[in-house]
């Protein structure tokens, strides 16, 4: 976006419109954060309650899925280590004593 330092408002507005800065601003993270902040400020007590409850439900689902996968991985690791131990154990050969 280029315009002279002493440009009039009309010139700046034209360059602004040509570069589609309003659309670029709406897509920026800064604008999205400002919008999210406005939404949070506009929440009522009931909205905050619903949000808290939804987060609790989400976290319970996430935790249960994580623990399920963790338990499954632990069982697989135990089975793999047991199989490895079986492979390492070679049958002992009995040696006869010489007289």
Automatic annotation (TrEMBL):
<keyword id="KW-0689">Ribosomal protein</keyword>
<dbReference type="GO" id="GO:0042273">
    <property type="term" value="P:ribosomal large subunit biogenesis"/>
</dbReference>
<dbReference type="InterPro" id="IPR039660">
    <property type="entry name" value="Ribosomal_eL14"/>
</dbReference>
<dbReference type="GO" id="GO:0022625">
    <property type="term" value="C:cytosolic large ribosomal subunit"/>
</dbReference>
<dbReference type="Pfam" id="PF01929">
    <property type="entry name" value="Ribosomal_L14e"/>
</dbReference>
<dbReference type="GO" id="GO:0006412">
    <property type="term" value="P:translation"/>
</dbReference>
<dbReference type="InterPro" id="IPR002784">
    <property type="entry name" value="Ribosomal_eL14_dom"/>
</dbReference>
<feature type="domain" description="Large ribosomal subunit protein eL14">
    <location>
        <begin position="2"/>
        <end position="59"/>
    </location>
</feature>
<keyword id="KW-0687">Ribonucleoprotein</keyword>
<dbReference type="GO" id="GO:0003723">
    <property type="term" value="F:RNA binding"/>
</dbReference>
<dbReference type="GO" id="GO:0003735">
    <property type="term" value="F:structural constituent of ribosome"/>
</dbReference>
<feature type="region of interest" description="Disordered">
    <location>
        <begin position="78"/>
        <end position="99"/>
    </location>
</feature>
<feature type="compositionally biased region" description="Basic and acidic residues">
    <location>
        <begin position="84"/>
        <end position="99"/>
    </location>
</feature>
<protein>
    <submittedName>
        <fullName>60s ribosomal protein l14</fullName>
    </submittedName>
</protein>
């Amino acid at each position: 976006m280029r315009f002279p330092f002493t440009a009039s408002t009309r010139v700046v507005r034209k360059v602004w419109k040509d570069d589609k800065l309003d659309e670029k601003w709406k897509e920026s993270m800064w604008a999205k954060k400002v919008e999210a902040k406005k939404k949070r400020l506009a929440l009522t007590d009931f909205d905050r309650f619903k949000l808290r409850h939804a987060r609790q439900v989400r976290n319970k689902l996430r935790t249960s899925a994580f623990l399920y996968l963790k338990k499954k991985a632990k069982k697989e690791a135990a089975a793999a280590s047991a199989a490895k131990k079986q492979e390492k154990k070679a049958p002992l050969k009995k040696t006869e004593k010489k007289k």
